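User: Show me a protein chain along with its predicted structure.
Assistant: Here is one chain, sequence first, then structure tokens.
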Amino acid sequence: MTYDQAIDQFTYVEPYVKLNADGAVSVVDEASLCEGAIDRLIRDAVFGSVEQRAAARWLIWEMGQDLGVQPASIHDFYMARGRGEVPTDFTVPAMNLRGISYYMARAVFRAANKLNVGALICEIARSEIGYTDQRPGEYTTAMIAGAIKEGFRGPVFIQGDHFQVSAKGYAKNREKEINAVKDLISEAIAGGFYNIDVDTSTLVDLEEDELMEQQRQNYLASSSLTAFIRNIEPEGVTVSVGGEIGEVGGKNSTEPELRAYMDGFNTSLSQFDDELVGLSKISIQTGTSHGGVVLPDGTLADVSIDFDVLSRLSRVSREEYGLAGAVQHGASTLPDSAFSKFAAESACEVHLATGFQNIIYEHEALPDELREKSYAHIKEHRADEWKEGQTEDQFIYKTRKKAFGGVKEDWWGLSADVLQQIGAALEDKFAFLFEQLNVTDTREMVDEIIDAPEIHKTPEDFVPKSELAMAKDLAD
């Protein structure tokens, strides 16, 4: 598909962009573009025909390249932290934007602009990609479009969270399960995910007596996937890769476990190529669970994080292995008073998701009709996930995240007034977290270290080949 063919589909964008002699797109009227055209373009990127989605995603990507809103890897920034060249008194928020992602991204970047934040990550997990109906190319497009709309400039760190190996799938057919994760990694990197959390902690075998044996399948699988990433990452990009030693919701991690995993990982990785770049961070377990623990009445149980574990393992990972530090998962439902402790204990990154989802679902501006339609959808289509002994409130709280994909067009079809009110509440929450995690005024520090390369693509890069083939078959 040529530039002219792409533009022909979106005449409302044509006055604001032009094609340069080298084939790149330039934005010539940013203010007018952001008044409304970008909103129409992102909807075409999400809900248009296969060809429209490809063309719209390509245009948004190329606009970002021109404006300096470029997907980037946080690897060099984290390595500088591991070397002691970057302070350790802040914690980078990694935010899972599950539903109405463009509008959530806009709230993130408004808060970032207000507080001069550069150290932030937008992410989506392997499981979320499925149940929210957002492939990597679409997610990246929503993040770039949100940043453009709000005037954010600088590297945009987009992360594949919990690109997880299924223990059941691995046990049944090891090669097939690893290849499924490799396929997702390939699609994600092609779509602009230059940060990947390789989660093979599901393979830890606590039945083994020796720590190295407990972690063996974990570090072997994660080193293999890291070597795969290094072989497909774009020129000029060193993808930030994170490992994990303890599955979230399990027992708390220890220093000996971290050392066993890291020593095994580094040895195993060197067998592929002794010059391959390794991990930038490591995820551990400190007492949390994803989404929190839901009580029968739908409220959340108090969560207690072992901040001493977080502090000690962060120090070991930095001082002994040169990593940025330890990563905390499952933290968004903690009390507000807890978040400043992550920065105080030098955690390098914290993952946040459910708290934002709760703001959306529980906002007074959200129409009851959409809330009830979402709940009806999961009761009908996710009934097999209703566990024995679970109350309806518990089932709904745990499962409503899956309605973001199930009734996706209804969510995106909310009125401008409702989206504005929900967006304002999200912006306030993001700003609060940025302040508590001490990432305010990190923009210049990030810009000084991170040099995001200019990468140009084609429309076909933004729709999975299977969808393009399907569209061709239908046309024929």
